[in-house]
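Researcher: We plan to redesign the surface later, but first we want a full-length starting point. Tokens attached.
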């Protein structure tokens, strides 16, 4: 102990000694310059008394030397004081005892005092030197000031300044080297001459020689030996002139420096100018942003949520037209609505992101900001509506079960829709049509064959559109013709012609003259819009007074059709979509002659609507934003029910058959309500007057998004400048509370039963050993959130979304209030339904609790993560329950379950689902309450299983690695590379942690051997491997005739372990460079099996790279590797299922784009888990299909978060509720349709953008339904086959070729099955009516007009062509027969076997030879 102490005591002494030496050295360094300065002899002139400049210079020098000595002495005193303080005392710090400290850390800590002292000294020296330099500079400046006072500047030296290029260098040289010394010498000489009076007495002899005097002066004042001799005023000016002259000498340092200074000065001025401009622009932009702030709806504190502004910037940056994607990375979007911005913060925050924008980009951003302000107003309005519906749900859910009946809800909506006024029905959507009802609720003949336009979601949609287009074309033609009639004579002739010409002929002539006047369209655009408004008003007025107003129309459709019409030639008539509408109307009339539909009868007479007039007034508001009198006209009257009757008796049997009986249930329920009448009976004229003159309170009801996109630039500027145009901070008289309560309903309002039951299990002391496993199960949950559609009931989110879809976006909040009051009175549940709901809740909770307990028990039992349990081992432990008293009862459970086939060792392996089912069957055979008995059995098995802490930790680590493999598949964006990576990570990490091995692994998949079939029907191709073996293994192929045990694993379906490969004669080595003596290690080959236990590949693991010679795989490692293969198989098929679904979607979209034209884009999204465990799910944009059907599949699909979709939340609304969403964003309408899993939850989304059209035409709307139904059926089939729930069904011959080809043909195969099933519903009378549908002109009555007879003839030809095309499919030999041209003989092929032959026909069979060209001609004729 004394030795370390003496060492510590000697260190300060040594340090003090060093300080003394350093101090002495510094003192000597200070003294040396002083002595040297004193030793320099002072130079004096020949005559000191007369040399005034020299005396002054000497005085200045002495003052300078004196000041330097004072500064140096002061620094010495400071240093001496420091050293004296250090000598007075020594501080000894107590020693510290440190355990288990890293030597590097210890050394660094020991070095810290020395370093600190060293840095302190260095810093003191640097400061002293810096202060010395500063003092010296200050002294020099003071001396120069004194010299200038004593010696004023002589400007005569400026005459030397001349920039003549010839003598420039010489003059600069002389001024720099000679003249500064020569001129004072000549001056001195002249002064001596004058003093000696040699000017006047030239003949006086004297010893004074001017040349010698000048030479002596030059020698004494040689600038190379004497410095700072002092300068006169003339010399100072000469020095300045010399410096200025040097600047003009080329290729000199001064010249280059001057040029650099000049360029730097110029750049600085430019930079300052640019900065001034930037500051002005920034101030102008900030002022514009401050004006924009008033456009937004603010919270009660006058602030805007930060996340809203961040979403505005994110949407603008995501626009590909601006190429600002890099700015998105700088945005860190907030996760909540908490942070807010006031006016100044709003301006500064946005300015920080748009500082570098160009003027055009900034103007576009201002427009975008204005649009987003309007959209935010709509978002707040929607939030108010959704809050209203949420309160309605809680009010109707009196039993607090968390759901409401679906059939009862739809029945109330139908009643409300039927008994509403015409004006209100124009805003609502028909609840009897899709998407309110499911495809399973529609009969197949009606779904595939019914073309009744009245069954559109907007009634009379096609009819209204047809009339508008016809009248628009007529008025546009007449207006253009009147413009071209320039002279009064032409006008008079035209008037006479119109008086003598029928209206039909006038239209035809006008249409013929239209193409020659298209060039004048651009000049008439402004006036044309006013004419269109007047025309639309006439249409609506006429239809309103006649009582036959079509109910569905839109300003968006009007604008769209006007634009199409203006771009097309009127001579060609209305657009093609109108002609298709005519066919639909005709089919409707022919279909209604045969039967009368209950749904139409229940609706009563068709009531007109004036939504077109509403939308027209919106377009008027677009051009007159300052006038709000006609901005929005909505119905101010409310619907109040007079009576309330019981409708419960008709809904008790609705859940038995969910879809087939739903229509009857809703119809019967709707008739039990009394008719809802308005408060006052009003005539059509009174209603129309009320529509034109609406109270100002409802002027904000029409969504601003409908009118903001047609404002002109000048109008927008006027709106921004006029302070009277600031938008109201209220929505229909209601203020915003400042919170969007529905922005995060998915996490707040979806009741997660699993989490509740898990919390209950955590609080139970019976299952303490399972708590950690249950927590892992909850944390490893796949996708959190989202509701499953079940067809029976609605939860809160689904109910709110259904009512929002029913009401639509155009309806004011008063309509929602009316609907809410109606629902509160109409929704009444019986006592039995309440009890049934409570029982269902208890059953769901019990089911979730059971699944959690059994899954946790399975994972505890399967401590190695193999993914299966041995049935014999489970039975041995189960039979000991209650000392074997329940053994016989437990054996009965095996009679109700089918176990998988035993393995070669008579081992029956059960998966987790099979284990849960088996235990539940065992519990059902025991006496007592099933829930209590199951918990008792689980507790018994849990306590009977003995697992060491090491096994528990190993099990936890392995479960985490297995979870990462599945998580990689779910977040891969349909790619297998992350799955391969996580699989190899799990293998290598487990080998290093639990086996102390270095392993190599590779995965090989089975493929059909088409190139070399002689070497076997199948081959194994290595698709992935660890990094070290990639050059030798990757993409290599193993055939059956080669050495190896992999095909043995494929054939037997069980793993094979080779402990020592050097002693095994049938192991194939991919790396031929390894010597045989070094081929030591173990090899393990495991089969990869799908849900049907079919082998599709092999995973191989070896220890050839391990340095240990003998290192075999132990049993727990082999079982874990089996678990890895099990999870990898699940992940592999998960990715392939998504690939197949994408393939089906691409096929369906291609089919739809060929027959529809109004769909702008189709975007496909998949749902994926969030990046964090507790985060919300995300959407991945997989592909986008443009207008012409061109599909772009993203290589790196972008991820979309919920927090970035405040303005596009319809995507997450769709995934949250698993329901169809009809939304409007930025003036474009979207139909968002979920792709559902077999459980009813959404796995993806299809976003159909239909542009500015309010809705598709009925034919296109029906085609969309067909496409969605077939795609959804294909998804169910793909997911069921991959999970093993259903067996693969190969219907067509082409499906046996391969999985990829099968996915490509699956869409058309399901559509073919749907049509075949529909044909089987036809009776013989239906075919007889088709064959008798013939047209004979001789028999045709003479009273029929020509147009009617032509229509009958066309329909007859249509029937014949379709039947003949179908006959050619089944009987291709008819083409070569003589009966081909005779219809009377061709129709004989339509017999009783006709439908059977159609249903059995396989168009992909090899033996089928059909003339597709001929059949195509017949089909194209029918389409034309």
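Model: Full-length starting sequence:
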């Amino acid at each position: 102990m004394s030795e370390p102490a003496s060492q510590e005591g000697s260190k300060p002494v040594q340090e003090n000694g060093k300080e003394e030496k350093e101090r002495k050295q510094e003192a000597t360094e200070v003294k040396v310059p002083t002595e040297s300065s004193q030793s320099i002899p002072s130079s004096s002139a020949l005559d000191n008394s007369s040399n005034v400049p020299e005396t002054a210079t000497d005085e200045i020098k002495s003052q300078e030397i004196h000041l330097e000595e004072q500064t140096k002495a002061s620094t010495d005193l400071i240093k001496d004081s420091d050293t004296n303080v250090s000598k007075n005392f020594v501080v000894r710090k107590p020693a510290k005892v440190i355990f288990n400290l890293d030597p590097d850390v210890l050394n660094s800590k020991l070095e810290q005092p020395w370093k600190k002292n060293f840095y302190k000294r260095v810093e003191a020296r640097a400061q002293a030197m810096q202060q010395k330099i500063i003092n010296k500079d200050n002294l020099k400046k003071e001396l120069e000031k004194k010299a200038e006072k004593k010696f004023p500047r002589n400007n005569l030296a400026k005459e030397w300044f001349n920039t003549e290029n010839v003598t420039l260098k010489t003059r600069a040289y002389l001024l720099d080297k000679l003249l500064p010394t020569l001129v004072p010498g000549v001056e001195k000489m002249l002064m001596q001459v004058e003093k000696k009076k040699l000017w006047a007495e030239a003949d006086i002899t004297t010893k004074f020689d001017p040349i010698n005097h000048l030479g002596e002066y030059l020698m004494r004042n040689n600038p190379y030996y004497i410095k700072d001799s002092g300068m006169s005023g003339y010399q100072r000016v000469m020095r300045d002139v010399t410096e200025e002259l040097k600047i003009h000498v080329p290729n000199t340092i001064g010249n280059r420096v001057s040029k650099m200074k000049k360029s730097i000065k110029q750049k600085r001025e430019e930079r300052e100018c640019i900065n001034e401009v930037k500051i002005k622009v920034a101030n102008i932009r900030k002022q514009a942003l401050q004006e924009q702030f008033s456009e937004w709806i603010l919270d009660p504190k006058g602030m805007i949520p930060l996340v809203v502004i961040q979403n505005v910037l994110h949407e603008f940056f995501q626009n590909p037209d601006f190429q600002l994607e890099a700015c998105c990375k700088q945005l860190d979007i907030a996760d909540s609505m908490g942070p807010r911005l006031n006016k100044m913060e709003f301006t500064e925050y946005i300015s920080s992101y748009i500082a570098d924008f160009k003027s055009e980009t900034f103007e576009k951003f201002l427009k975008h900001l204005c649009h987003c302000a309007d959209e935010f107003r709509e978002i707040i309005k929607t939030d108010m509506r959704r809050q209203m519906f949420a309160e309605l749900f809680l009010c109707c859910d009196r039993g607090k079960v968390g759901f409401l009946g679906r059939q009862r809800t739809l029945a109330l909506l139908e009643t409300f829709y039927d008994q509403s006024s015409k004006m209100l029905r124009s805003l609502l959507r028909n609840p009897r049509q899709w998407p309110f009802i499911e495809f399973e609720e529609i009969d197949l003949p009606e779904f595939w064959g019914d073309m009744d336009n009245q069954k559109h979601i907007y009634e009379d949609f096609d009819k209204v559109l047809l009339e508008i287009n016809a009248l628009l074309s007529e008025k546009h033609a007449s207006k253009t013709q009147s413009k071209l009639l320039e002279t009064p004579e032409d006008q008079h002739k035209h008037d006479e012609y119109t008086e003598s010409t029928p209206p039909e002929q006038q239209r035809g002539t006008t249409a013929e003259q239209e193409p020659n006047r298209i060039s004048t369209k651009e000049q008439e655009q402004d006036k044309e819009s006013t004419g269109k408004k007047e025309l639309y008003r006439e249409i609506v007025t006429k239809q309103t007074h006649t009582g036959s107003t079509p109910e569905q129309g839109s300003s968006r459709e009007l604008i769209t059709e006007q634009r199409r019409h203006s771009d097309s030639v009127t001579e060609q008539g209305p657009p093609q979509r109108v002609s298709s509408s005519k066919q639909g109307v005709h089919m409707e009339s022919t279909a209604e002659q045969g039967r009368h539909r209950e749904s139409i009868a229940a609706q009563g007479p068709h009531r007109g609507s004036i939504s077109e007039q509403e939308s027209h007034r919106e377009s008027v508001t677009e051009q007159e934003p300052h006038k709000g009198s006609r901005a929005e006209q909505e119905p101010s009257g409310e619907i109040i029910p007079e009576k309330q009757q019981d409708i419960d008796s008709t809904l008790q049997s609705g859940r038995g058959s969910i879809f087939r009986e739903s229509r009857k249930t809703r119809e019967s329920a709707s008739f039990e309500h009394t008719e809802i009448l308005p408060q006052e009976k009003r005539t059509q004229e009174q209603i129309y007057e009320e529509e034109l003159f609406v109270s100002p309170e409802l002027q904000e009801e029409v969504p601003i998004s409908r009118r903001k996109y047609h404002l002109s630039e000048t109008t927008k500027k006027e709106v921004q400048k006029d302070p009277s145009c600031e938008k109201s901070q209220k929505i229909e008289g209601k203020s915003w509370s400042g919170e969007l309560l529905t922005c995060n309903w998915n996490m707040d309002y979806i009741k997660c039963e699993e989490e509740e039951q898990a919390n209950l299990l955590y609080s139970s002391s019976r299952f303490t050993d399972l708590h950690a496993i249950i927590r892992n199960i909850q944390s490893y949950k796949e996708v959190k959130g989202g509701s499953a559609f079940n067809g029976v009931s609605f939860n809160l989110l689904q109910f709110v979304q259904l009512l929002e879809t029913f009401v639509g976006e155009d309806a004011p909040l008063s309509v929602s209030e009316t609907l809410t009051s109606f629902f509160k009175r109409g929704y009444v549940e019986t006592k039995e339904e309440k009890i049934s709901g409570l029982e269902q809740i208890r059953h769901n909770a019990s089911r979730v609790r059971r699944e959690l307990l059994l899954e946790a028990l399975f994972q505890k039992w399967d401590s190695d993560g193999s993914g299966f349990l041995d049935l014999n081992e489970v039975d041995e432990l189960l039979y000991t329950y209650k000392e074997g008293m329940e053994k016989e009862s437990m054996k009965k459970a095996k009679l109700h379950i089918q176990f998988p086939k035993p393995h070669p060792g008579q081992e029956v392996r059960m998966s987790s689902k099979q284990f849960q089912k088996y235990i539940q069957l065992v519990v059902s055979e025991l006496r007592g309450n099933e829930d209590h008995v199951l918990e008792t059995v689980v507790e018994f098995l849990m306590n009977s299983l003995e697992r060491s802490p090491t096994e528990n930790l190993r099990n936890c680590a392995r479960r985490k690695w297995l979870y990462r493999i599945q998580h990689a598949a779910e977040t891969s964006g349909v790619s297998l590379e992350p799955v391969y990576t996580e699989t190899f990570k799990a293998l290598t990490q487990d080998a290093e942690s639990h086996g102390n091995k270095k392993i190599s692994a590779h995965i090989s998949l089975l493929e059909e051997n088409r190139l070399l079939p002689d070497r076997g029907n199948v081959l194994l191709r290595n698709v992935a491997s660890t990094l070290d073996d990639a050059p030798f293994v990757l993409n290599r192929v193993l055939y059956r005739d080669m050495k190896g045990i992999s095909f043995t694993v494929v054939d037997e379906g069980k793993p094979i372990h080779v402990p020592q490969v050097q002693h095994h004669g049938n192991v194939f080595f991919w790396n031929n460079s390894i010597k045989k003596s070094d081929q030591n290690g173990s090899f393990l080959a495991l089969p990869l099996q799908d849900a049907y236990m079919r082998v599709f590949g092999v995973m191989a693991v070896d220890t050839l790279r391990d340095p240990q010679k003998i290192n075999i795989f132990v049993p727990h490692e082999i079982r874990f590797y089996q678990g890895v293969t099990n999870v990898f198989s699940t992940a592999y098929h998960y990715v392939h299922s998504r690939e197949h679904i994408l393939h089906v979607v691409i096929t369906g979209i291609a089919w739809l784009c060929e027959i529809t034209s109004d769909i702008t884009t189709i975007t496909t999204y998949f749902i994926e888990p969030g990046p964090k465990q507790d985060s919300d799910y995300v959407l991945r944009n997989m592909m986008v299909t443009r207008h012409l059907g061109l599909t772009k599949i993203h290589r790196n699909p972008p991820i979309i978060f919920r927090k970035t979709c405040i303005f596009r939340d319809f995507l997450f609304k769709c995934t949250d509720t698993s329901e169809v969403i009809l939304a409007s964003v930025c003036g474009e309408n979207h139909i968002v349709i979920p792709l559902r899993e077999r459980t009813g939850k959404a796995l993806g989304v299809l976003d159909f953008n239909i542009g500015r059209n309010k809705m598709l035409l009925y034919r296109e709307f029906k085609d969309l339904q067909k496409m969605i139904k077939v795609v959804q059926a294909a998804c169910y089939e793909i997911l069921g086959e991959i999970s093993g729930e259903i067996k693969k069904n190969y219907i067509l011959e082409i499906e046996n070729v391969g999985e990829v080809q099968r996915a490509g043909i699956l869409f058309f195969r399901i559509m073919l099955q749907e049509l075949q099933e529909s044909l089987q519903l036809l009776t013989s009378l239906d075919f007889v009516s088709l064959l008798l549908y013939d047209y004979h002109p001789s028999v045709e009555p003479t009273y029929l007009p020509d147009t009617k007879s032509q229509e009958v003839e066309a329909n007859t030809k249509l029937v014949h062509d379709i039947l003949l095309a179908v006959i050619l499919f089944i009987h291709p030999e008819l083409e070569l027969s003589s009966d081909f041209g005779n219809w009377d003989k061709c129709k004989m092929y339509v017999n009783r076997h006709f439908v059977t032959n159609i249903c059995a026909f396989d168009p992909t069979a090899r033996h089928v030879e059909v003339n597709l060209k001929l059949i195509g001609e017949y089909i194209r004729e029918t389409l034309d």
